[in-house]
Amino acid sequence: MKILNLYCGIGGNRKLWGDDHKITAVEFDPKIAEIYKDYFPNDTVIVADAHQYLLDHFKEYDFIWSSPPCPSHSEIRRCGVYSGQVEPIYPTMELWQEIILMQHFHKKGQLYCIENVKPYYEPMFSPQIRERHCFWANFYIYDFPKTVRKHEMNTTESAKMLGYDLSKYTGIDKRKTLRNCVLPEVGKHILDSATKNIQENLF
Fold first, then answer.
1. Considering 9, 108, 128, 200, which has the largest number of Cβ atoms within 10 A of its Cβ?
2. DSSP state letters, 24-68
3. What is the mean pLDDT of the segment spanning 168-187?
4. How far apart are CA 121 and CA 94, in angstroms?
């Protein structure tokens, strides 16, 4: 398939996809994009605004994965406000904009999955909830086993568990970069679910 991997980071979700697909990855931070390139040299990596890139190019792909920024939606943000650690902010609307776009304008035969955290408020659109994730997809996502809580790990533990060595990279927040990764097993499960829907003529 021709795959678009948006907000790709260093490629946690992509790590177990293999090299059978033609993958385009979009990342805003050039230093993060360089790490992705190092780990996935066969992919096309574009340094750009993923939100705008989706709008401009979504019709060109067979499968789209998007993981828009989650901090303004998360329960952690609300807890931080209540504890006085952070100030309240408006939830960013990119998540909901992308869901609306793909729900109404995806091309025939195109698969998409938009991933985010469970929000602290009632979601604008009902997701498929699998463990700690919300997924808005136009295919059925099969259940998967409970995953580890990488947020409870330190940077070294997270890097080892995810299979990344960031020791040679500078100028990035390594803890945040690793925490932003979707677990490779989750990324593989979503792609496998999409493929299974196609194979069983459910899509």
1. 9
2. EEEES-HHHHHHHHHH-TTSEEEES-HHHHHHHHGGG-SEEEE--
3. 92
4. 16
Q: Which amino acid is at 201?
A: N
CATH classification (class only), 2-148+183-199: alpha beta
Residue-level pLDDT at 149: 61
Query: What does each C-alpha distance from 25 to 70, 86, 102 come to in angstroms?
Result: 19, 32, 18
Spatial contact of 81 and 130, defined as CB atoms under 8 Å apart: no
The 10s digit of each residue's pLDDT in 98-116 is 999 999 999 999 999 999 9
Collapsing DSSP states into helix, strand and coil, what is residue 162?
helix
Q: How far is the C-alpha of 47 from the C-alpha of 34, rounded, in Å?
A: 9
d(CA 104, CA 95): 15
* Residue 143: CB atoms within 10 Å: 9
Which residues have a Cβ under 8 Å from the Cβ of 174 and sit 6 or more positions away?
A: 155, 159, 166
Contact 89, 125 (CB under 8 A): no
Q: CA-CA distances (angstroms) from residue 154 to 27, 76, 120?
A: 24, 18, 25
- Reply yes or no on whether the pLDDT at 145 is more than 80: no
